[in-house]
Every structure is written in C-alpha cells, then in structure tokens.
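Last lecture ended with a question: if I hand you only a sequence, what can you say about the shape of the protein? Today we answer it with a concrete record. The protein is Small integral membrane protein 1. Below, first the input exactly as provided, then the predicted structure, then a couple of comments.
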Amino acid sequence: MQPHETSGVQYSRWNENSQDQVNVNPSATVFPTWRRFYTMLCTGKIGIAMKVFGGLALFWIIFIIGYVTGYFVHKCKQM
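The predicted structure:
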C-alpha cells in the first residue's frame, strides 16, 4: 500500500520488478474554480491593480460615511 501523495506525478524507481514506473494523476493538477479565480485576480499586474482599486474604493467609502456622520452630528439645531 502506497502513501497518499498530493503531487500529480509519482515516480517509483525501486519496485519489485526493478523497472522504472511513472504514474501521472491528472486530477491532482486541476485547480478548483475559486483557486483559478483567486490566481487570476490577486497575482501579477491585475492583482496589483485590483488592490489599488480596492484601496481607493475603501478610502472613498470611509470618507463619505465620515462626512455624512459628521454632518448630522454637528448639524446646528434650528429653533
């Protein structure tokens, strides 16, 4: 019984018949959809652009929330 390996290629040089044996498991090399999506959007030039865009969007969201909150907190009461 062989141990479970995570890699897609298993090479066994020493076996009972003294022959080289190479086993390829194609299902181990297929990434899930979320992993491909993450790799595409979070690495490389697109990843840097997404992080910059996300940072700017977060800045403006916090700025607008603070502005609106400050407006209502410091609003002068009318008699």
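Comments.
1. The chain is about 50% helix and 10% strand.
2. Residues 44-73 form the longest helix (30 residues).
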